[in-house]
Specification:
20% helix; seven-stranded antiparallel β-sheet; 7 strands; 3 helices; 204 residues; alpha+beta
């Protein structure tokens, strides 16, 4: 499967990347979308999502498969460990269900489960959590998927909350995490340009 196919499927449609507070990284694919997200419309946020996909994202047999970073620039909502866990579970349920439909793969009735615990917040971030996300891989053969995650949050300008999520199959001590943390450290804390609305298109 070509990586570009996976990226388009993951985001429901292939949209042009637009400027965002999440920095670009050489060799990584960039996408930006507005909430509500077409594949996870029940995630009740207002704002935008920016995504950076590592070159290894679609190499699911590799130790660092599924490596990517998400930044939610949204209007403030309660966002502690329990709320983050629920939002991530709903997000990944929608992501995998949509990917399964697009690939005509039988959906597995395995809801995502997220386990987060507090960790020391990096510089310039207010709160931080680390943990594990359990789901299934609708981009491959439907196998069980165990992802590591680091999630940080902060309030920026008034009415503006950032949630940064680093996600990978790789253990958090792996070198793949150096790039994810560099993206987090380089994320700006100002009002981002608004991504244009994207017409919904079926994945194929």
């Amino acid at each position: 499967m070509r990586p570009s196919f996976v990226f388009c499927l993951a985001a429901v449609l292939c949209g042009a990347a637009s400027a965002a507070n999440l920095p670009d990284r050489t060799g990584w694919r960039a996408e930006t979308f507005r909430f509500p997200l077409a594949f996870a419309s029940s995630v009740p946020f207002e704002g935008q999502e920016s995504v950076r996909f590592a070159p290894s994202f679609a190499r699911f047999a590799a130790a660092d498969g599924f490596t990517h970073a998400l930044l939610w620039d949204i209007k403030p909502v309660p966002m502690e460990g329990a709320q983050l866990g629920r939002a991530l579970a709903v997000y990944f349920d929608g992501l995998m269900e949509n990917a399964a439909r697009g690939r005509k793969l039988d959906e597995l009735p395995i809801p995502a489960a997220v386990s987060l615990h507090p960790m020391r917040a990096p510089e310039r971030w207010s709160d931080a959590y680390a943990g594990t996300l359990y789901t299934w891989n609708a981009f491959s053969r439907g196998e069980a998927l165990r992802l590591q995650a680091e999630v940080t949050t902060r309030h920026c300008t008034p009415g503006h909350l950032q949630v940064f999520m680093a996600i990978s199959m790789a253990p958090r001590r792996d070198k793949a995490w150096d790039a994810l943390r560099e993206l987090r450290d380089g994320t700006r804390c100002d009002e981002p340009p608004v991504a244009p609305a994207q017409p919904q298109a079926p994945a194929r």
